[in-house]
Amino acid sequence: MSLIRNILNSRSNEDGNFFLNLKEILGYKPKSKSLYIKAFTHRSMNIKDNDGNAINYERLEFVGDAMLSAVIAAYLFEQVPHGDEGYLTKMRSKVVSREHLNELGKELNLIGLVKSKIPKSNFGNNIHGNLFEALVGAIYLDKGYKFCERFIYERVINPHVDIETLEGKVISYKSLLIEWCQKEKNTFDYEVYEDTGRDELKHFSVKLSINNKVVSKARATSKKKAEEKASKRAFFAFQKQIARRT
Amino acid sequence: MSLIRNILNSRSNEDGNFFLNLKEILGYKPKSKSLYIKAFTHRSMNIKDNDGNAINYERLEFVGDAMLSAVIAAYLFEQVPHGDEGYLTKMRSKVVSREHLNELGKELNLIGLVKSKIPKSNFGNNIHGNLFEALVGAIYLDKGYKFCERFIYERVINPHVDIETLEGKVISYKSLLIEWCQKEKNTFDYEVYEDTGRDELKHFSVKLSINNKVVSKARATSKKKAEEKASKRAFFAFQKQIARRT
């Protein structure tokens, strides 16, 4: 423990913002700080505890991966009542794909919190997803399943998981909407502007107008995502009028 | 729901013992009975809900498998501090191996609760493990993670998971003990007798004597298991004297 305390202290001195930034991401104050320090310690730091066990985020990934799988399994079970075991497994693997986890880690800018002896530019792309998994593992071990489940809902399921998209019924709401506008001879316009506001991360806002009337607005971390979000909102507003392609 | 109620009623009439037996296994009274009925309905029954979705245990296996993986991941993380991600993954796959899950299902005689149009003698061996997973899934959905975790500890981890054995440090406590007895010129005797008592399932008891003195007793569902359990108990009693083979 004394070793962990040393690392903790050196961390606070070097990076007073670590726990402040972390609290922003978590939405609560960590109980067991050492777990989160571990979740953001790269193996290149070569730190060991008093028993000689390595302190880095890799073992936490194992726990985080399992918790993501469990929470998403239960979610899909409820949301996709017609899907059999194999279908649910396939859907889950889309949600927790390497690519998607990397996006989630990037979105939270987790790499900004990591402590490493290797320059950050040398990391591969997978570090983002690995840190995200490790963080989920730390949350579970620190605060239990309910908290961890809530974090996964807030950060993964609510903003990113759309059953229709997962089922491959809708590839892109934007293309669906444009197709419909063209068919119906409606004019459309996506007005995009930077809208970072008080966020650290760059954000974009979109106003979607159909026939010169704003029908929906959205905000996200990329132009593409904001447009897709606005299109989806418009889609649900007009869905009785838009023929669904299944 | 009315359909589920019908199945529920027909089930109670045909097999009044279903919920009684279930309560014995669970150690609590189920809240959502329909989940457990689902967990013990084979696809051959060909039952569908009002939306046309199949009612059988297969989808619940997906949830149960995920919960087993999560609970055991967290357990191994704490218990095996020196193991890296890959090592922990390997250990978990031993605990939740098809073979082990089948044993767990058999131990609880879950097949005795299943409703099917196929004669039970025609089922393959995997049905035991599948039912066990489905039951774990039903417990999670009915009572939440904490309850499910407790069930997994009581039925899987406490009676069956031994870190030393999993790590391959000890293959069999019986062979270890016999080896030691022979080396030390101690006599030993495993006295085995049937001891089913009030259980439905056949049980065996073992008295292990070393130098004509009873040193440990154990009871299990097979002779082999009871002997191994008694050996393990003796092993821990004598462990200072027994040289450990790593």
TrEMBL record, chains A, B:
GO terms for molecular function: metal ion binding; ribonuclease III activity; rRNA binding. The active site is at D65, E133. Residues 172-240 form the DRBM domain. One of its GO terms (cellular component) is cytoplasm. One of its GO terms (biological process) is mRNA processing. It catalyses: Endonucleolytic cleavage to 5'-phosphomonoester. It holds the Pfam family dsrm. Keywords: Cytoplasm, Endonuclease, Hydrolase, Magnesium, Metal-binding, mRNA processing, Nuclease, RNA-binding, rRNA processing, rRNA-binding, tRNA processing. Residues 19-144 form the RNase III domain. It is found in: Cytoplasm. Its EC number is 3.1.26.3. Mg(2+) binds at E61, N130, E133. Its main location: cytoplasm. Its cofactor is Mg(2+). Belongs to the ribonuclease III family. HAMAP family: RNase_III (MF_00104). Digests double-stranded RNA. Involved in the processing of primary rRNA transcript to yield the immediate precursors to the large and small rRNAs (23S and 16S). Processes some mRNAs, and tRNAs when they are encoded in the rRNA operon. Processes pre-crRNA and tracrRNA of type II CRISPR loci if present in the organism. Homodimer. This is Ribonuclease 3. It comes from Winogradskyella aurantia. The gene is rnc.
